[in-house]
Design brief:
Strand order of the largest sheet of chain A: 1-2
CATH topology of the largest domain in chain A: MetI-like fold
Distance between the termini of chain B: 66 Å
CATH class of the largest domain in chain A: Mainly Alpha
Distance between the termini of chain A: 43 Å
CATH architecture of the largest domain in chain A: Orthogonal Bundle
Oligomer: heterodimer
CATH topology of the largest domain in chain B: D-Maltodextrin-Binding Protein, domain 2
Helix content of chain A: over 70%
Strand content of chain A: under 5%
Number of strands of chain A: 2
Number of helices of chain B: 19
Largest interface: A-B, 31 and 30 residues
Largest sheet of chain A: 2 strands, antiparallel
């Protein structure tokens, strides 16, 4: 064995555990769900599955509920990703100094991230109750902004709003933490130089902080977008996809088709299309955002 | 050395040949409940005593987890022997061929015992001509009326007919503090799904599917089915029905009943302990569902006991099923609040003298099961959507139900 071959072998051996788990837990399920999507799949392996080719996909593209779920998922992503990003950045910049209590606030903002989705979803359900909910109480009885209680969760045109707010609130902490790490990687000398040149705080943010945070930002956009597409528990707990299907998202629709209706083939088709969409978007994001600083 | 090996071998042989036949039973009884205590401290030990060599291993799986667990079990062909299963799941798991057809496997015994069960609960075990389980426990929903609010409105008794209900509900809806907004509602319920709407639909003479569970057209959208949805919508628009039915949140039906906010609600037998748990002094008054064209009808809930085809001990499993549905065991469970499924037990002094089992047992005589069909979950969503479309979305009741009929026909055509 030559030296090079030996080195290659060592390298392969080192990545082998990771590679195996990647193949087993990522690649195999993707391929298998594509395979399942070609069948009228029966969950009982003793009953033969009926091969139906692309029929599940044809039905999918004719399915109004799928489009509603897709649009809701896209809207959720479009609203919550910038929401988390902007608020996370502002808080990170504010907390990126050695002021008294900043550790306490960092902890406070991070707390929602580690709290269970189910617990906070139930909590938000209470906050957004039309009668006796705190949000309506503040808006109507204290601030007098609204004349009547808003039916946040039962009005199809508003039911996504509490879900957006929950998603943003719960995600800010993570975004803040990643930004803080990014901010701490920016050498102080740049700011010192800028101060010598008389740059204002805003100019420092605009010309030093933001450009140097770009890699952090790209990482977050990609991760948060994937996270946004995966929205599930908040919908499942707060509205169950209702009222009138107005809060159905791809994951909740897929879950319903598989575990409630036992349409495993159809649910696999949804999951495969879902995979293609997320994969494509991530690739586009990487391509367009990954320019050099 | 050789000798000791032989001794060990013989000992092992003894252990294996006398090893108990282990039957695994899955259930979702909360481990803090009275039912769980009866099951583990009474039912199982007594059964094991009278059936030497049989061991029942009970496994509690929370109801949220149960379905996922069962799906995984099916995919990996690794089942328990027995299970206490939600009545809605029985046709669905029967249809994918994992449950034992009791009428095929034990025809003589099954036919002998089947008439002992209440019809509503028994019908939940049946799909495509076969029975996939035995009813284990049941429940239904009856009207709870708030005497204080009724008296204040000058009413002395609960509505006996739907017409009376429609009159009373208006008298019971009020703006007590005079701020221009209703703060006392005639009626409240937890949602608009079939669990909530079936009592109204069936009492009014409407239906969901035909009696063979294979046609929706002309049933889910029959004249009566449309009429009752229209009435409900009107009452909702007039503010007589609390908007908690639309999932807007706020004070729950039972809490609101106890707090004198909702004059009427419909609830299962668990309503009693929920109300008394929070409001020990609350007075609860029960009445049958107001009767419409088709009498007083309500909806059947509960669980069945099922056996999986994979079991190695069919006969023993069936013995346990018979035991757990026997008179004495059913009565034992009734004492901790689980409603029995046997017709004969309705006359037992315990049931007759019980605070509220009497009325529930009476309602059960005419209660209808949600159509036992493997695709019930889809059918349910379709009907719920139709009711939401009309009540929340202001769609015409006939259009909503016509479109539900079309959807359900599509769903049924797959079977």
């Amino acid at each position: 064995m030559t030296r090079n071959k030996k080195r290659a072998l060592t390298g392969i051996l080192f990545i082998l555990p990771g590679l195996i788990s990647y193949l087993l837990w990522t690649i195999y399920p993707i391929l298998n769900s594509f395979f399942m999507s070609m069948f009228k799949w029966n969950i009982n392996p003793k009953i033969p599955n009926q091969f139906i080719g692309i029929e599940n996909y044809i039905n999918l593209f004719k399915d109004e509920k799928f489009y509603t779920a897709l649009i809701n998922t896209l809207k959720y992503t479009v609203v919550t990703v910038p929401g988390q990003l902007i608020l996370g950045l502002i808080i990170a910049i504010l907390l990126n100094r050695k002021a008294k209590g900043s550790t306490f606030f960092r902890l406070l903002y991070y707390l929602p991230v580690v709290t269970s989705w189910v617990v906070v979803s139930v909590l938000f359900q209470y906050l957004f109750s039309s009668r006796g909910g705190m949000v309506n109480y503040i808006l109507k009885d204290i601030l007098h902004f609204i004349p009547k209680n808003i039916k946040w969760l039962s009005d199809p045109s508003k039911a996504m709003i509490p879900i957006y707010i929950l998603g943003i609130w719960k995600g800010i902490g993570w975004s803040m933490l990643i930004f803080l790490a990014g901010l701490q990687g920016i050498p102080k000398i740049y700011y010192e130089a800028a101060q010598l040149d008389g740059a204002s705080s805003w100019k420092q943010v605009k010309h030093i902080t933001l450009p140097l945070l770009r890699p952090t930002m790209i990482f977050q956009i990609v991760m948060l977008t994937i996270g946004g597409f995966n929205v599930f528990l908040s919908v499942f707990v707060m509205t169950g996809g209702g009222p009138r299907g107005s809060t159905e998202v791809l994951s909740s629709y897929m879950f319903k088709e598989a575990f409630s209706y036992f349409h495993f083939g159809y649910a696999s088709a949804i999951s495969f299309v879902f995979f293609i969409i997320v994969f494509t978007i991530s690739q586009i994001q990487r391509k367009f955002l990954n320019k050099d600083i | 050395m050789k000798k000791s090996l032989v001794v060990i071998f013989v000992l092992l042989l003894c252990v294996f040949s006398f090893a108990a036949k282990e039957l695994v039973l899955w259930h979702s009884y909360s481990t803090t409940s009275g039912e769980y205590k009866v099951l583990t401290e009474k039912v199982i030990p007594d059964f094991e005593k009278t059936h030497p060599g049989v061991k029942i291993v009970e496994t509690q799986v929370s109801s949220d987890e149960m379905r996922k667990r069962l799906v995984v079990s099916t995919a990996s062909q690794d089942f328990p022997d027995l299970m206490r299963m939600d009545i809605i799941w029985v046709p669905q798991f029967g249809n994918i061929d994992v449950l034992m057809k009791l009428d095929k496997e034990f025809p003589a015994e099954f036919n002998k015992m089947k008439d002992e069960f209440l019809e509503g609960p028994l019908s939940t075990c049946k799909w495509d001509g076969n029975y996939y389980g035995l009813p284990l426990d049941t429940n239904t929903r009856v009207l709870l009326w708030n005497k204080k609010l009724f008296n204040e409105a000058g009413l002395s008794h609960p509505p006996r007919t739907m017409d009376e209900f429609f009159e009373d509900i208006k008298l019971l809806t009020k703006d007590n503090d005079g701020d221009g907004e209703i703060d006392q509602w005639g009626f409240a319920d937890s949602g608009l799904g079939p669990w909530n709407s079936i009592p109204w639909i069936y009492s009014a003479g409407g239906e969901i599917l035909n009696s063979d569970n294979n046609t929706a057209e002309g049933h889910v959208n029959s004249k009566q089915s449309v009429a009752i949805l229209n009435e409900y919508k009107e009452l909702y628009d007039e503010g007589c029905i609390s908007d908690i039915v639309t999932g807007s949140g706020g004070i729950g039906a039972l809490e609101g009943y106890a707090e004198n906010i909702y004059a009427m609600v419909i609830s299962g037998p668990w309503g009693h302990s929920i109300i008394k748990g929070q409001y020990p002094d609350a007075e609860i008054n029960y009445a049958l569902m107001p009767a419409g064209e088709n009498g007083s009808r309500s909806v059947v809930g509960g669980e069945d006991i099922v056996m999986f085809q994979s079991t190695k001990y069919k006969q023993e499993a069936f013995e346990f099923m018979k035991y757990i549905t026997s008179y004495d065991v059913q009565l034992e469970f009734a004492k901790v609040g689980q409603m029995p499924v046997l017709k004969s037990i309705a006359d037992d002094p315990f049931i007759r003298n019980h605070d509220y089992f009497g009325i529930y047992m009476q309602q059960l005589k005419t209660a209808v099961a949600r159509s036992p069909h493997p695709a019930w979950n889809e059918i349910e969503d379709s009907i719920a959507t139709a009711w939401e479309d009309t009540v929340i979305g202001d769609y015409d009741a006939k259009d909503s139900l016509d479109s539900a009929a079309e959807d359900i026909e599509d769903i049924l055509s797959e079977y």
